[in-house]
Amino acid sequence: MNWKRKDLLGLEELSRQEIEFILDTAKSFKEVSTRPVKKVPALRGKTIVNLFFEPSTRTKTSFELAAKRLSADVLNFEVSTSSVSKGETIVDTARNIEAMKVDCFIVRHSVSGAPLIISNAVKSAVINAGDGCHEHPTQALLDLFTVREVFGKISGLKIAIIGDIFHSRVARSNIWGFTKLGAKVTVCGPPTLMPRGIEKIGVSVCYSIKEAVSKADIVYLLRLQKERQQENFFPSQAEYRNYFGFDTKKFDLTKKKFVIMHPGPMNRGLEISTDAAEKENSLILQQVTNGIAVRMAVLYLTVRQVH
């Protein structure tokens, strides 16, 4: 197929064929990171702007490395030292930067829909690096890539996504991605952190971590997003850890083999114990490694659409 989108705002809008095309493209780029000289000239002369309005380590660094390995120039936007701190709108910020002839904005923002607003205002490519509680498409794509790499397929697999479903943009993107590629998704967490009507988008709901894990090929643990919670959704962190935290005691309760995934950053001792995170069946660092290849693919496909 031919890629025709200049933006990547979410997986909800993508077809199965488009998702698989990104994964196939990422597979061809993964080899680049194993070379002595980790560069290809695919985006030489292009300028990529990391427009991050929220803190980030993995996503921002991964996008920067991906762009540089494609030979693009990278500008890291610092909100605290920009005109945004003086009251400038995100649209004016994007338009002013675009006037300097850049080719792509990678946008992370605490407000859902911010990347869409920017994409409607500029001709440059826009990639959503996480917006509010909406989506985080490249995280889901690297998760899909990792699962396909390990299992050789996605269709027919069972994935349990456990934790703060309500606030998680990672969960939403993964639900769209895994279900479109034929996996069966179960979401598990406290009732207060479970969105109403989530079953309508093709998932099963479970409130017992033991039950969710016992049926899963992939156990995907979410970070408890305390910064997004404006009220108390459960009595205490200790109670959350007791009922929904993943540790080796709960792990030993099931005889079924599965892999462990987490988007990071981890709250060790809360949603996942250190011994569980370090288990041989943990794919957490493999996810980070694969993020570069996936983001290289996304940058390559979208930026080429900009004229």
What number of structural domains do the residues give? 2
Helical content class: 25-40%
Instruction: Tell me the fraction of residues in β-strands, as a range.
Output: 15-25%
Number of strands: 10
CATH class of the largest domain: Alpha Beta
The 3D shape can be described as globular
Features:
307 residues, alpha/beta, Rossmann fold, 2 domains, 5-stranded parallel sheet, 11 helices, 37% helix, globular
Strands, helices and their partners?
Layout: E1 7-8, H1 16-30, E2 47-52, H2 58-69, E3 73-78, H3 90-98, E4 104-109, H4 114-121, E5 125-131, H5 137-151, E6 158-162, H6 169-180, E7 184-188, E8 204-206, H7 209-214, E9 218-221, H8 237-244, H9 248-251, E10 259-261, H10 274-277, H11 284-303
Parallel strand pairs: 1-5, 2-3, 2-4, 4-5, 6-7, 6-9, 7-8, 9-10
Describe the model.
With 307 residues, the chain is α/β, with parallel strands linked by helices. The protein folds into 2 domains: 7-136 and 290-303, Rossmann fold (3-Layer(aba) Sandwich); 137-287, Rossmann fold (3-Layer(aba) Sandwich). The protein is 37% helix and 15% strand. The protein has 11 helices and 10 strands. It has helices at 16-30, 58-69, 90-98, 114-121, 137-151, 169-180, 209-214, 237-244, 248-251, 274-277, 284-303; strands at 7-8, 47-52, 73-78, 104-109, 125-131, 158-162, 184-188, 204-206, 218-221, 259-261. A 5-stranded parallel β-sheet has the order 1-5-4-2-3, sandwiched between helices. It has a 5-stranded parallel β-sheet with strand order 8-7-6-9-10. Helix 5 (137-151) crosses helix 11. The protein starts with 6 loop residues before the first strand and ends with a helix. The model has no long low-confidence stretch (mean pLDDT 93).
